[in-house]
Amino acid sequence: MLRAARGGVRLSPGPGLVLRPSPRPGPGRPPPPRRLLQQAPPPVVPPAVGRWLLACSGAVAGAVVLGGVTRLTESGLSMVDWHLVKEMKPPRTQQEWEAEFQKYQQFPEFKILNHDMTLTEFKFIWYMEYSHRMWGRVVGLAYILPAAYFWRKGWLSRPMKGCVLALCGLVCFQGLLGWYMVKSGLEEKPDSYDIPRVSQYRLAAHLGSALVLYSASLWTGLSLLLPQHKLPETHQLIRLRQYAHGTTALIFLTALSGAFVAGLDAGLVYNSFPKMGERWIPDDLLAFTPVLKNIFENPTTVQFDHRILGITSITAVTALYLFSRKIPLPHRARMAVTSLLAVACMQVGLGISTLLLYVPTPLAATHQSGSLALLSTALWLMSELRRVPK
Ligand code: HEM
Asked: Where is this region: Disordered (predicted)?
């Protein structure tokens, strides 16, 4: 996680250096030792930087939701090439649309799945993918342009500069990863009887890197804006903080495993809960060889793992909540831990409903957004509990 503790992120002292009133140096008097020089508190990073980072995390959340809807409406493979600038202009004339449609017709998704698709239907999936890609560009600019402005203004401390560079690098990487993912769905696979879809590994990498970008921006923004509590460093508080970190990591892992469920359409293999079909542990759990392959490629195992991780997450959140009740906490930290429990219950409820109702698009998209809400609440709690630097 990028470090940017509030009050810890300060601009370099520069002109803020002042001298204590000292006896005038004279011929017999040595100049005051350097450690008597006292520094005026250096200015903190302006709150505008924190607000910008929160807005960026909001923009990334929008891209994640839009990406989920694009995938759920099976629109993600409609644009079959990638140009950073040229593709920003959509087809205008009938001729341009037909040329675009013809390009799509050369690829497996049209040949195997959509061979009876009309131009009007194609326009819908094309615009879905186009809006996701355009939103991605907006997100990129939302990071890069203000970053350059704040840098020039000298509003970024040294650690913040590193932080901002990493975030800008990550946003560019995210775009490249998106195209790398789409490419895997455009390849002809003559030996495969499977429907054309992107690689679940690349989907998980694309979602995972979006979640890292989102979390890092939100965490840094919150660290800059939220006033810190001076909590007494008791043994219990240290343990609570460790639990909160562990639970956040678990939620992140659960969300990542959700990408494998989505990528393999594994939400459609067993649509019952709590059992999978008639059994607690389905027969085909280890059907693939070697055994390890099941974890990422067998839809049954992928769904099973996601259920286990989801249930472990809600159990961890409940335990965290119960443990927090024993410790005196400031009002905001108490609110964060209670909200975490509420959002976790909602997220698990949404996951189960998505499964039981055979993955309807609105519910599946809400479940995906719920994972962002859950991760955000966990990061908020971590931010409330963070250690004040001495
Ligand atoms: C802490 C709890 C959970 C988190 C953070 C979480 C997160 C996610 C995420 C991020 C996705 C990927 C969505 C996408 O890319 O479109 C997903 C998919 C899915 N999750 Fe969960 N999930 C949780 C619990 C559950 C539970 C308990 C169930 C059901 C028992 C469940 C069922 C599903 C299903 C069926 C999908 C596939 C939806 C699709 O194909 O789009 N989830 N989950």
From this structure: 1-41
**What are 236-269's pLDDT values in tens digits?**
999 999 999 999 999 999 999 999 999 999 999 9
Q: Which residue has a Cα nearest atom 8 of ligand 1?
A: 258
Place of tokens 């961890």: 316
Residue 374 has pLDDT above 80, yes or no: yes
The C-alpha atoms of residue 101 and residue 103 are separated, in whole angstroms, by: 5
Distance CA 143, CA 60 (A): 10
Give the C-alpha separation, 30 to 231, whole Å. 44
Look at residue 147 and give its three-state secondary structure.
Answer: helix
DSSP string computed for 274-337: SSBTTBSS-GGGG-SSSTTHHHHH-HHHHHHHHHHHHHHHHHHHHHHHHHHTTS---HHHHHHH
Q: Does ligand 1 lie within 6 Å of residue 299's CB atom?
A: no
Q: What distance in angstroms lies between residue 383's CA and the mean position of ligand 1's atoms?
A: 25
C-beta of residue 223 within 8 angstroms of C-beta of residue 47: no
Cβ–ligand 1 contact at 367 (below 6 Å)? yes
How many other C-beta atoms can be found within 10 angstroms of the C-beta atom of residue 314? 19
CA distance 365 to 66: 9
Distance from residue 26's CA to the centre of ligand 1 (Å) = 75
d(CA 370, CA 68) in angstroms, rounded, equals: 12
User: CB of 202 within 8 A of CB of 257?
Assistant: no
Q: Tens digit of pLDDT for each residue in 299-318?
A: 999 999 999 999 999 999 99
Pocket flag, ligand 1, residue 269 (CB < 6 Å): no
- Ligand 1: which atom is nearest the Cα of residue 365? 16
Q: Which residues pair with 38 in a beta bridge?
A: 18
